[in-house]
Design brief:
- This protein has about 500 residues and is an alpha+beta fold.
- The chain is about 50% helix and about 20% strand.
- The chain is built from 14 helices and 15 strands.
- A six-stranded antiparallel β-sheet has the order 6-5-9-8-7-13. Strands 10-11-12-15-14 form a five-stranded mixed β-sheet. The protein has a four-stranded antiparallel β-sheet with strand order 1-4-3-2.
Length: about 500
């Protein structure tokens, strides 16, 4: 039950508990280690003090002189007690080599055997040990008193009781506990600050909720058909889903690289919706700023654009027929009015002239272009240009034989070039010829030409209303057919290769 309740806590709350546990264990472990080290240091210090006192007493001339007298205790006992009080040790025992005491803090113990080890001292060595004697457990040192010839005359032992060392340890422990408490308080305060920041960043959600959000985010990100990209403030691509990789042709290691490395810095910038041509795809790109940078959505409009192109072509033909019907109605009314006025000859001459002009245009187009769909396109565009107050002229040297190219691609190229020219000028000239190994398409006008001749090569446009995409579609169709396109002033020249037929 406790573990289940713990899982329902926020991630920040769990982190706080975990950090407090880590801090508490760390501080407790550090305090215990420090306690052991302090105890060892105090014990070593006591042993060093006892050794220094014992060596000092053993080397004192008064001690050696007293040992030569008949009753050494009379001289050595006051001397030992004086040194003991002066140095702070708990006992100084001077004894015979066999361990019989000359001195002791408790006079009743004088003459009794020393409790402890003396073998190493009898061999001439000074050593320390922890041993329980008449005063209780103590840290003691034992050293020999030797004469000039190196004989051991006596032994000196000095020591400090363990309870006295423990008292000092308790004093040190009190200060250590204060330091530990301060460290724990500082650690807890730091953990709380980290928890507050983490709670703000995770919105108080627990790990289960965060994991579920991540799973949902990952599922949605990779399931949507639209491409999603997140671009940082410095232009670095920080996130992209599978659809974006497919639509834009991004490599697997695209994330973490600058968008300029893929040639997308300009079309993915800004906030307005724009159209981007990527390979054979027509993509709609939208950008919106966010706290993390710029969120870009990419939608595939290839099929929609194809349907829109077909609809525009059908609309163009319908407009051409409407224009032709309107002109024919005007001419018919003129002829009927002339007949009603009794001017039959003028009516016949007017009707014949109009019929001859229309037939000449039809004969010229059909004679020059043997592709029915393309010929119909040129007739429709001619009528449309005339209605708009312009003129569409088919050059005298135009002659387009059977070529084997996709008629839909040709309609896309010629139709968009003519529309672009009619929008910018009043007189448009079209030249279509079959050359050695290919087809030449040239559309020129009397306008100033495009402001940016490379617009069709970039493959993108900022005109969100659907206009301005014509040159980009031309460039796309030319690339699909393996051709080239050149711009010189207001003249667009397209050369398309034609594969030789095998007979």
């Amino acid at each position: 039950m406790g573990v289940f309740a713990m899982r329902r806590w926020s991630l920040a709350g769990q982190m706080l508990v975990l950090q407090l546990l880590v801090v508490a264990v760390t501080v407790a472990g550090g305090g215990a280690l420090a306690l052991v080290q302090v105890q060892d240091l105090l014990t070593d210090e006591a042993g060093a003090t006892a050794s220094a006192v014992a060596l000092s007493v053993a080397a004192a001339p008064d001690v050696q002189a007293a040992l030569e007298r008949a009753e050494p205790t009379r001289t050595l006992q006051p001397y030992a007690e004086k040194v003991r009080r002066a140095t702070g040790v708990d006992f100084i025992t001077i004894m015979k080599p066999d361990g019989t005491r000359y001195t002791h803090p408790n006079p009743a113990e004088i003459g009794r055997r020393f409790l402890g080890h003396t073998e190493r001292a009898l061999a001439g060595e000074t050593f320390t040990e922890t041993y329980t004697g008449t005063l209780g457990p103590s840290e003691r040192a034992v050293t020999p008193v030797v004469d000039a010839r190196g004989r051991v005359l006596a032994l000196v032992s000095a020591g400090i009781r363990i309870d006295k060392i423990s008292a000092r340890l308790q004093a040190e422990l009190a200060w250590g506990a204060l330091v530990v408490a301060l460290a724990l308080a500082l650690g807890a305060a730091g953990a709380w600050l980290v928890t507050v920041r983490l709670r703000r960043q995770t919105h108080g959600l627990g790990p289960v909720e965060l994991g579920r959000i991540h799973d949902h985010h990952d599922a949605v990100l990779h399931a949507v058909r639209e491409g999603l990209l997140l671009i940082g403030p410095d232009g670095t691509l920080t996130l992209c889903n599978d659809a974006a990789r497919l639509l834009l042709g991004l490599p697997p290691d695209a994330e973490g690289r600058h968008v300029s490395a893929f040639g997308l810095a300009e079309p993915l910038s800004g906030t307005e919706e724009r159209v981007l041509l990527a390979g054979d795809r027509v993509l709609a790109v939208s950008s919106a700023p966010s706290r993390l940078g710029t969120v870009v959505t990419v939608r595939d409009h290839t099929e929609l654009q194809a349907l829109a192109g077909q609809l525009d072509a059908e609309r163009g033909f319908a407009e051409s027929l409407r224009s032709a019907a309107h002109e024919a109605a005007n001419r018919l009314h003129t002829v009927i009015t002339l007949v009603e006025l009794g001017r039959t000859e003028q009516a016949v001459a007017f009707g014949t002239a109009e019929l001859r002009a229309a037939q000449e245009l039809t004969d010229r187009v059909v004679g020059a272009v043997r592709e029915p769909v393309l010929a119909a396109l040129l007739l429709g565009k001619s009528a449309e240009a005339a209605e708009r107050g312009g003129e569409l002229v088919i050059s005298d040297d135009s002659e387009l034989d059977e070529h084997g190219l996709d008629a839909r691609e040709l309609v896309t190229i010629v139709g968009n070039l003519i529309d672009n020219a009619v929008d910018a000028a009043t007189r448009v000239e079209v030249r279509l010829r079959t050359e050695a190994g290919g087809v030449l398409i040239q559309v020129s006008d009397d306008g100033p030409g495009p402001a940016d001749p490379a617009a069709f090569a970039r493959g993108w446009t900022t005109k969100g209303d659907g206009r301005g995409l014509g040159l980009a579609l031309v460039g796309q169709a030319v690339r699909r057919l393996g051709g080239t396109i050149e711009v010189a002033g207001s003249a667009f020249t397209v050369r398309l290769p034609v594969r030789e037929r095998v007979s």
